[in-house]
Design goal:
The protein is mainly α. It is about 60% helix and about 5% strand. The longest helix is centred in the first third of the chain and has 56 residues, at about 45-100.
Length: about 350
């Protein structure tokens, strides 16, 4: 069979296009580090790669949630530390006021200092970070406010509820308290979110609670045993004000015994703030554990992704350079295969 000039140039053109296509594919692999650019090139690897990328995306989402929760807990711990400092300062002032050598004027000065600490505590308890109140649960308004009664007595409120009115005495009252305590901020960190079959709500043990409802450490209700025949506020804010009121009394109206009992109640209730700091520390440690776990998981997934989708960088680069040489040689060969004619010079 006679090989015509047209057959030869056509065959050369097809081979050159094939070399060019292979060169472009290798160039893409070198640039991207991936075995394929389209799913159709390797369907099996593409499916496995998609599953790995989906898992990587989940892990990254959990890591973002953990970082958010860690920041919130760090702010909460720092703010709670300020409250503890105020409580410690108040304790020192109360002890000074109880000293028998203090005059009425001295006690009134100490009472004024206690009320200043009260105001500082109120501001600190309403600390806001990232448009959320640290100790208010899901409430987007100041969680702690003060209401003055008709008799001029200040009462602390938490998320709209007067703390003195809260109680665990009955089932209905306890439900209100439990609702306030459980009104917290939750985040998904990969514990396996489930739903309560009865209510349809997210099961609280399947998500991470990273907030600290202020009710848990401020105290609530009234104490009827500290001072016989008298109901005393059980929350730290009102209790501090009650002690200041005793220090302001003159002459025989001042009772050291009352102050001593109120001080004992104040010290006992102050322990809740220190206990809450310990709980925050435990939560932070758990998040650190989860962070290390996801860092390991993320590394393993990336290794697996490289095995499924990635190319051998050294081998691919050598193949790319070899293909470049072959393509250049083919172009040079074309000068011999595709002969010039007089028609090439005609316009």
């Amino acid at each position: 069979m006679r090989i015509t000039y047209r057959m030869m140039t056509s065959r050369y053109s097809n081979n050159l296009n094939s070399l060019s296509s292979d060169l472009d594919k290798l160039n893409t692999q070198v640039a991207t580090g991936r075995k394929y650019a389209r799913t159709s090139e390797d369907v099996s690897s593409a499916v496995r790669g998609y599953q790995i990328r989906r898992n990587l995306s989940k892990v990254e989402g959990y890591q973002d949630n953990i970082r958010h929760a860690e920041d919130f807990l760090t702010n909460s711990e720092s703010t709670l530390s300020q409250i503890e400092s105020s409580l410690s300062e108040a304790t020192t002032k109360i002890q000074q006021g109880m000293n028998g050598s203090q005059s009425e004027g001295d006690r009134k000065i100490i009472a004024s200092e206690l009320r200043t600490i009260q105001k500082q505590m109120l501001q600190t308890m309403n600390t806001e970070a990232s448009d959320m109140f640290l100790f208010g649960g899901t409430n987007d308004q100041k969680p702690f406010t003060v209401e003055t009664t008709a008799g001029g007595i200040e009462q602390l409120k938490y998320n709209g509820k007067i703390l003195d009115d809260l109680s665990d005495a009955t089932v209905d009252e306890k439900k209100i308290v439990d609702a306030l305590k459980s009104d917290a901020l939750y985040v998904d960190i990969g514990l396996g979110v489930t739903f309560d079959e009865t209510t349809g709500d997210i099961a609280r043990n399947s998500v991470f609670n990273y907030s600290v409802p202020g009710l848990n450490f401020m105290g609530y209700g009234k104490n009827t045993t500290a001072i016989p025949g008298e109901e005393v506020s059980n929350n730290l804010y009102d209790l501090l004000g009650r002690i200041a009121t005793e220090f302001e009394k003159e002459g025989s109206a001042y009772s050291f015994e009352k102050v001593d009992k109120l001080y004992g109640l104040f010290k006992d209730n102050s322990l809740k703030a220190y206990q809450m700091t310990t709980e925050i520390g435990a939560k932070s440690q758990y998040l650190e554990f989860m962070t290390n776990r996801y860092e390991t998981q993320n590394f393993n997934l990336q290794e697996r992704q490289t095995q499924v989708e990635g190319v051998d960088a050294a081998y691919t680069y050598i193949a790319f350079q070899s293909q470049k040489v072959a393509y250049s040689a083919a172009l040079q060969m074309g000068q011999s295969v595709v002969q010039q004619s007089v028609f090439d010079y005609m316009s």
